Amino acid sequence: MHYDPIKKSLGNVFNRSPYLRILFYKLLDVLLLRTWHIHRELRKWRKTAPEKAHILDAGSGFGQYSYHMSKFSDKYCLLGVDVKDDQVAECNELFRALGKQHAFFKVADLTKFRKENAFDLVLCVDVMEHILEDVDVLTNFYASMKEGGTLIISTPSDQGGSDAHDEEDGSFIEEHVRNGYGMQEMKDKLALAGFKKKKLHYSYGTPGQISWRLSMSIPMRLLNISRAFFILLPFYYLVVMPFSVILNFIDSHTAHRTGTGLIVIATK
Q: Is pLDDT above 60 for 166?
């Protein structure tokens, strides 16, 4: 399934005003399970974060994570980078309209982007599975982090991530260059990049997989057939959202022996 055209259509709907865009962010916060896991890791990071932290949102996309982190403190300096110039322009326009002068966005290729010893936190959510030269990206992250800085990654795992359960299965999202990472594979690549301190755990256990199918997989497949299904989405989510919220809460507060997602925490 081609995901980018659907994302573009969603962006066109919610870019009509800053208030609609913020509403869009809030909906993503509720529906996307990875957001529950990332917000939980960010709460942990904030407990020991520097007063004037510098943050890199690596692959900032719509800007929902940048918006969330921009509310932590006006003393933080936040940079979001993405390869899509239209999304970068939209984020800069939105954040200027909201008066968030401490957050900026620029077009950059993560395989080449490096800013030596600049960031206390690098956040990379559902990006690595799109990039073939992943070790180059991890190496750039390591070089760009301050000593003691933290890297947080969310990415599909090889335990059925991208809705691929066999070697012959294609990814649910055709823009992915890999279906998911094995835990040892990710540890090895982090080590190649220079990271010595790393902690990994699975997300999207059984509750999360059910929630993902209800809140993401089914709607996206319908929209891939026809954009006319946009009309039905509000009614669909009125029914589905309460179940998804409960399942997302359970998944993000449970340790999983396996799962279709992988959360990575690495320290320089």
A: no
- Out of 2.40.420, 3.30.1120, 3.40.50, 3.90.550, the CATH code matching 4-49+109-119+128-267 is 3.40.50
Give the C-alpha distances (Å, rounded to integers) separating 196 from 73, 121, 190.
Answer: 29, 16, 8
Q: What ranges do the domains of the chain cover?
A: 4-49+109-119+128-267
Q: List pLDDT tens digits, range 64-113.
A: 999 999 999 999 999 999 999 999 999 999 999 999 999 999 999 999 99
Sign of dihedral through CA atoms 41, 130, 80, 90? Answer: negative
Instruction: Dump the DSSP string for 26-92.
Output: HHHHHH-HHHHHHHHHHHHHHTT--TT-EEEEET-TTSHHHHHHHTT-TT-EEEEEES-HHHHHHHH
Bridge partners of 124, per DSSP, are 153
CA distance 236 to 222: 11
pLDDT at 72: 95
Question: How many CA atoms, within 13 angstroms, populate the side-chain half-sphere of residue 164?
Answer: 21
Q: How far apart are the first and last CA of the chain?
A: 37
* Number of Cβ within a 10 Å radius of residue 265: 16
Q: Is the CB of residue 82 less than 8 Å from the CB of residue 61?
A: yes
How high is the pLDDT of residue 219? 84
Reduced to 3 states, what is the DSSP secondary structure of residue 197? Answer: strand
Q: Which pLDDT score is estimated for 156?
A: 93
Diameter over CA atoms, the chain: 50
Q: Report whether 56 contacts 127 (CB < 8 A).
A: no
CA distances from 62 to 37, 122, 151 (A): 18, 17, 20
